[in-house]
Amino acid sequence: MKNFTQFDTRTLADSLIDKALACKASPLEHQEKGKGKRLGLIFLNPSLRTRVSTQLAASNLGVESFALNMDKETWALEMQDGVLMNKNKVEHIKDAAAVLGGYFDFLAIRAFPSLTNKEEDTEDFIINQFIRYSGIPVISLESAIRHPLQSLADMVTIRENFQEKRKPKVVLTWAPHIKSIPHAVANSFSEWALGCGHDLTITHPVGYELDEQFTQGATIEYDQNKALEDADFVYVKNWSAFNPYGKILKVDENWLLKESKFKKNSKARVMHCLPVRRNLELSDEILDGSRSLVQNQAKNRIFAAQAVIDSLL
Ligand code: CP
Fold it and tell me: Any idea which positions bind N(2)-succinyl-L-ornithine (predicted)?
């Protein structure tokens, strides 16, 4: 594994899940492994879980980590090649990434999409510029189109909470929101759930179809109640429209997940990557009730990151 930016193969995913569970059982077992290594965490957007869990994971392996809020603490970066830099951007990504590549053994990058430039977002332009110019391994801390560390933690959480021999039935459901939200978590969850062989149904209002490159093999169900009927896991997430790109569409039905929607399903566990807007995206009663796995997911972010850093070491 050279970089960790997306689902690769089921074999690799299974081995990362196994490794994450081994790290969870014994987090400090390989504390000497990363001695003398340095990880740079570069944030172009805010974070709580990703930042802290990745730094804890590095620390568990003896790796020294440094976090930089690129948007606030360093020079404004020009990302486009070949431009005349006579406006407000002070440093070019080509120079900054090469400098960081000389300082660190690996980089981790968070770079959200613009949600205005579909072509650039879809080709994951910013993280690929860091990969291109840093010359060292890069871990995605959420890019324009994927959030693989979150998805790995989600797959670990499903593995821990499903003991049956059959495939788990997993439902990804759209949830309401007031802002235009990226597709990365939903795309990645779909990519990893399908890649890991789960039986995936995606339910959302008409118009909220995700980019098909991430959903091939999933069942699309526009009736949320029907989708929930026999789910083992329900993953709740908002995303903006992919067509028209980044827009919020008018939705008449009530998509907020409440306990009353589980009358026909007592067993389903509910997941969300957090942060969550309570009672807008997901109800208090679900978040605070026995179905909720959200704290397990957040905890597993440490061990997912530890498994990835360990593999890169
Ligand atoms: N789930 C997640 O990525 O959380 P943060 O945005 O707080 O890192």
Answer: 142, 177, 237, 277
